[in-house]
Structure formats: C-alpha cells, structure tokens
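Memo to structure team: turn this sequence into structure tokens by end of day. - J.P.
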Amino acid sequence: FIATFLLAGLDLPIASAGTTGRWLVLGLGAMVGTVILLKEHRHRFGTFHALALFSVLAAIVSAAVSRYTLQSSMKVLSLFLLFLYGATGARLAVSGRENRFFLGLLTGCEIFVAVIAAFYLSGKEIMGNPNSLGAVMGVVAAPILLWGTLLKQEAFAHRRRVFFFAVAMYFTFSSQARAALLAATVSCGLLCLVLRKYRLLAQGLGIIAIVATCIAIVRPDAFSNMISSTTSAVVYKGKDSGEGIMFSRESPWQETIEVIRDHVWFGTGFGTSDKGDVDRAQLGRFASTSALSAEHGSGYLAIVSWVGVLGVLPFLLLLGALLGKVIQTFMWAFRTRDPSHAAVPLAIVVLAGLIHTGFEDWLFAPGYYLCVFFWCMAFMLVDQVSTLGQPDWRSMFILRNRMMHPDLRA
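Reply from structure team:
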C-alpha cells in the first residue's frame, strides 16, 4: 500500500504507474478494510476517529465555499479515504500480528535505506530532491532503526541495524534539510531519554565529538571550511547570515498569513489556494496542478489557510489528541524502560512527523507518501496506546518473544 504512494514520488520511469494507481489502491484499501471491520466487529471507534470525521466535514464546508469547489472536493475525498483506511485497513494490518508487522517494518526500513544508498552511489538521486530524502530518512528510517537497535536480539541483527541507522542519519545530514535534521535529532534523542538510555545517548554524542576533533586536528583548514559551508547551507540556506536563520521561510509564512486574513472564516478551500488569476474553465474537471497550490512553509499554516479559523478547530483537536497519545506512550516507556511495546515506535515516528511538518506542507496532503505513512501510524498508535495500562500486554510479549527468539514462527 505505502509502496504505491512511494513509487509515485520517486524519480524513476515507472513513477507514472504509482501516480495513477495510488488512488485506486487507497480506495480499495479503504473499502476492503471497512467491510472486514464491520463484518468481524474487532475494533471500536472512539473520540479520535470522531475527530477525524469532523475534520473531513470541516474540509467539505471549506470546499463548498471555495472558488474551485470541484477540485477542492476531490482533495477532500482523498482525505476521507485516507482517514477511512487508517481507521480500518491500517488497524487490521497490525492488530493481533504486531510481531510480524514491526519486524517487517524494520526489515523494510533496512532494505529501503540500502536501495537508496545503492542508487545514490551510482549517481541517481531517486528521491527527487534533498528535502524528500531528508524527510523519509529523518522522520521514518532513522527513528525506526534506532528503536530496532534497542530491542533484545541476536548480535548480528543488532550490528546490522546500527549500521543502517548510521547510514540513515548520514543521508539526513547530507540532505541539509533543517526540518529533517530537527525531527531526527529530537525524536532519536528523546527516544533515548524516555527509555533512560543515557549511556547510548552520551556515546552517540561522544562519537560525533571525537570524529569532529580528529578532523580538526588532522585537517584544520578543511574542518574550518566544512563548518563554514555547513553553517551557510544548513542554517542560513545560502543566504546572508544577517538576514536571520528563518529567512527562507519568512516569505511563504507571510504570504500564507495574508491569505488567512483574506479568507479568515472558511479558508480558500481544502487543498487549494485562491488565485484569482486562474480561470476555473482552464483547470479541467479533475485537475490538480500547481496553479491551485502554494508553498505555505508549514503544514499547520496550510490547514488554517485551507479551512479557515472556523474549520480548523476539529483539526487542532485531532492533532492535540494525537499528541496526547504520544505523551502517554513516553510516560509509560519512562516508567518501564521497555522499548518492546508496539506503541513506542509508532509514537516516535508520529512525534518526528509532527516536528517535521512544522516546516513542510505535507501533513494533510494525501497524495504524498509521507502523509499516508504518518496517518496510518497515527491510527495504529491510538489502538496500541489503549493496551499500555493492561497487565498482560499481548502485543508487547509477542513482539519481545519474537525479538529474543528470531527462529520462532508466529
């Protein structure tokens, strides 16, 4: 499922197949998941799912008052299908089979990092741009692989995951994407802190310090140039340092704020920007072009711009409820020091995504693979957090036993 959306975002000749097929896969996944869930009555819908539904309803209202009603309505439909799949198919994918799912997720991250590394070594940047590379590595691969190194497992599996985690962090830093760097650093550091892995955190910082010191001693000129170029490229994005750290973001932020002021109550329409110079007759019936999009510099500003002050309330409550689940998981992990519960990797990925989308626009863009992955993890997290207070955490023991005894079959 996720692979179809990822394929659409890769710079490969077969990417067009993913661009077309992702909506078919999303619709089928939502439909099949709904049928199975209603038939088996295995899950209940709670407050989080109700907030997701109210968010879709708010998006429908914004689409109704938009200049581009048809195009906005199609984007609302894609959001509804994503939330429906998250509430049905994604939950069914992990419930009762946590061991297989998360072992598969770890293996998938290892394979993904290896494939990306092979393409980049051959000179092919298949992610398209550094921001996309930094996003998938800093939000998904690095946090999940770090979590994988903390589980009880065979020595070879541990060393392999440490290696791929290092590769993922290298790609995150080499992308020079500040949002990805911030998301990876905070999420990975916080994972070590909540699990009280202070020694591991100190070792990581120590290794970075030792490597930097050795380079500075052996090649001081090269080290000085590296620091200067890194500061210019990462911190100031090639701009004059006197313009400020966030200079590259100020323009889209200011433009978005102006749009919000002009459409304060109901927004411009979910997924669209109100550009008066665009003729609706020239867009086509189901077009989704850059003519209707604009850079907002933040997923949070984007949703306010799209649905307005009145429509943003359910979205804020949805994100607040999700953040509450993350905090609840971290509090449990801090008390138990146990990384093996399924909620832990889900919470760390969700946290990384919430940090990253503060500087990128993908949070409510269902056509983007990171958005699809994030909300699938979010709906899974809601279910897994509900098992934290139980005395016999089925998912925790199944996952722990599988990690301690890799030869066992579920």
